[in-house]
Design a protein that fits this description.
The protein contains 15 helices and 16 strands. It is of the alpha+beta class. It has 2 domains: 246 residues, BirA Bifunctional Protein, domain 2, CATH 3.30.930; 91 residues, Rossmann fold (3-Layer(aba) Sandwich), CATH 3.40.50.800. The strands form 3 sheets. The protein has an 8-stranded mixed β-sheet with strand order 1-5-6-11-10-9-7-8. A 5-stranded mixed β-sheet has the order 13-12-14-15-16, with helices on both faces. β9 and β10 form a beta hairpin. α5 packs parallel to α9. The longest helix is centred in the first third of the chain and has 20 residues. It binds histidyl-adenosine monophosphate (HAM). The site of histidyl-adenosine monophosphate has 25 residues, from β6, β10, β11 and α11.
Length: 422
């Protein structure tokens, strides 16, 4: 019978991969909590309207990539393509705003976009997402990008580039829109069908077009950064100044328009040149009007998301092998030693040590092979002879040395050894 395969673009994360994910998640949590972020967990499905209203009706995500469906009640729902809209919805729904303090939130989890799968681009992928509500201060823009760089470098990745840009505010963007429309109109029908349509509905979105011909035509397009108002320019200058003070390296890239409509002012992307065409590890920006547009108070906000698959891909390129915590494997030889090993493995686990045994009564050779494969740091060997003499052999798998321990206090000995006291 033919076996059932996973959905295209949706991947299993197998046990030997999971350690990388845990390492990235743990580091992310540690950094985010240190900067004052608290975790939030929102549902994977939301009302379709939430994403249409926030990300924008004429964006690629909403037009082409949503997992939208009607549920059994006839409600139109969608699997979340990103986390920001859901977090804002939750913020508004539960009245999370406070008068005095700003609120910093983070979420880690799967997102869904029906894109064409390729290396670094999947239909279910995972993001580490961070959002700050309640301040328009350029300090927080800089702090956020500083933290993003720290997080990526903290995981163990080097050679990344932080690209920043400003998209101005709705007022200065209005003036720019007209200039861009004129430019696009002058090019006549040289652009693709999609861009011709975008020219009328949402001209800025032409920058998202992946068609090479359109990208080439856009080389000479007027850039938004040259049209921003005084206030927006001052904000951007202050952000750059703080980044320099923090020692966070960046490059201004006027082409960062981001694929989502809610952005204004500061936008940014972290790029690596070792990822091929899907080179953005993360991106984000300010979205001051979104909370209000979704029915909440008029609070300023900014955020970013990191793509975990891409981050882990880079990490694996840089570090071939990941060190494993030294586990203990107990090889029991013969029926009575195996019974004793069964109790011992539970005692070691009970004291917080990672321990495993062979339940099947295999030969020493095959048990040692299994211990080696499992990556255990230590093997405890218990035979009939050792059991009678109340002893147990300890083999250090790394140092390839062996010594004899007393069986009566082997748990205490192993605790001392695992903590590095011996
Ligand atoms: P985004 O740029 O659409 O922004 O996604 C952020 C990151 O998610 C990308 O840089 C990439 O690493 C990863 N990513 C996106 N799509 C895929 C995919 N199909 N497969 C694998 N990885 C992918 C956002 O989602 C915004 N919500 C970020 C944000 C938060 N802005 C403000 N707050």
């Amino acid at each position: 019978m033919q076996s059932i395969q996973a959905v295209r673009g949706m991947n299993d994360i197998l046990p030997d991969q999971v350690r990388w994910w845990q390492r990235v998640e743990n580091k992310a949590r540690e950094v985010l909590e240190r900067f004052g972020y608290r975790e939030i967990r929102t549902p994977v499905a939301e009302k379709l309207e939430l994403f249409a209203r926030s990300i924008g009706q004429s964006t690629d995500i909403v037009e082409k990539e949503m997992y939208a469906f009607q549920d059994r009640n006839g409600d139109m729902l969608a699997l979340r393509p990103e986390a920001t809209a859901s977090i804002v919805r939750s913020y508004v729904q539960h009245g999370l705003q406070t008068d005095s303090a700003i609120l910093k939130l983070y979420q880690i989890g799967p997102m869904f976009r029906h894109e064409r799968p390729q290396k670094g681009r999947y239909r279910q992928f995972h993001q580490i997402d961070a959002e700050v509500f309640g301040t328009d201060s350029p300090m927080i823009d800089a702090e956020m990008m500083h933290m993003l760089s720290l997080l990526i470098e903290g995981v163990g990745i080097s050679g990344i580039v932080l690209n920043i840009n400003t998209l101005g505010c709705p007022q200065c963007r209005q003036a720019y829109r007209e200039t861009l429309k004129d430019f696009l109109a002058a090019k006549g029908d040289e652009f693709c069908q999609d861009c011709m349509r975008r020219r009328e509905t949402n001209p800025l979105r032409v920058f998202d077009c992946k068609v090479e011909k359109c990208q080439a035509l856009l080389e000479s397009a007027p850039m938004l950064i040259d049209y921003v108002c005084e206030d927006c320019r001052a904000h951007f200058d202050a952000v750059k100044d703080y980044l320099e003070k923090l020692g966070t390296r960046y490059a201004v890239n006027p082409r960062i328009v981001r694929g989502l409509d809610y952005y204004m002012r500061t936008t940014f992307e972290v790029i690596s040149d070792r990822l091929g065409s899907q080179n953005a590890i993360g991106g984000g920006g300010r979205y001051n009007g979104l909370v209000r547009d979704l029915g909440g108070p008029d609070v300023a906000a900014i955020g970013f998301a990191i793509g975990m698959e891409r981050l882990i891909m880079l990490l694996q390129q840089e570090q071939q092998d990941m060190e494993r915590a030294p586990g203990i494997f107990i090889a029991g030889l013969g029926e009575l030693p195996r019974q004793r090993a069964f109790l011992l493995v539970q005692q070691l686990r009970g004291r917080g040590l990672e321990a495993e045994m062979d339940y099947e009564g295999r030969s020493l050779k095959s048990q040692m092979r299994r211990a080696g494969k499992s990556g255990a740091g230590y093997v405890l060997i218990l035979g009939e002879e050792e059991l009678m003499g109340r002893q147990i052999q300890l083999r250090d798998m790394q140092a390839k040395t062996q010594m004899v321990l007393s069986l009566d206090d082997v748990v205490e000995s192993m605790l001392r050894i695992a903590s590095g006291a011996i």
